[in-house]
Amino acid sequence: MIAQLRIIAAEGPNGRFLPSDFLEFVWGGLAFLVILFFIVTKGLPLAKEAIDKAQASAIADASAAETAVAESQARIAEATAQLGDANAESARIMADAQETAQQLRVDSANRTQQLVNDMWAKAQTDVESMKVQANADMQAEVASQAVGAAEQVVHASLDASGQSDLIESYIAGLGASS
Predict the structure, then answer these.
(1) Which domain holds residue 57?
(2) Residue 103 to residues 62, 91, 94, Cα–Cα distance (Å)
(3) Number of domains making up the chain
(4) Do residues 154 and 166 make contact, with C-beta atoms less than 8 angstroms apart?
(5) How crowded is residue 28: how many other Cβ atoms within 10 Å of its Cβ?
(6) CA 160 from centroid of its chain's CA atoms
(7) Spatial CB neighbours of 158, under 8 Å, sequence gap ≥ 6
(8) Is the pLDDT score of 10 beyond 80?
(9) What is the pLDDT of residue 166?
(10) 164 falls within a domain
(11) pLDDT at 87
(12) What pLDDT score was predicted for residue 168?
């Protein structure tokens, strides 16, 4: 077979598949085999190692992503629970505020009613005291007018001796009562 290849190569360049120099073909083939040997013995393990590292890195990244997704879902669940708690707390606060507002309305109405009652009682007391004062003032005025009228009547009807007898009897009556 080598002889046939030499013959084919010796004939001259065929222009397509075989070089015109057979030794060039042999040396080229040997160089290819040496390079192929180094690629297979050195390059493939390096490539396999790089692929394994990339695969391990991808698995680690996927695992980290799954962990991050799980943590995110846990945080979402926690936030949802807190939101539910916040909504319940908000409803409780609103109910307390409404209850407090109602209590304040009732207390305010009670205080207002008590104030009105106190003012009414004070007004009644003031009216009664004004009546008593007016009656006393009227009695004093009537008494003053009656004394004045009595003085005029007594003056007009009593003479000097009658007047002195009246004064003496009045003084005697005062001395007897004390």
Answers:
(1) 2-128
(2) 60, 18, 14
(3) 1
(4) yes
(5) 12
(6) 100
(7) 166
(8) no
(9) 74
(10) no
(11) 80
(12) 79
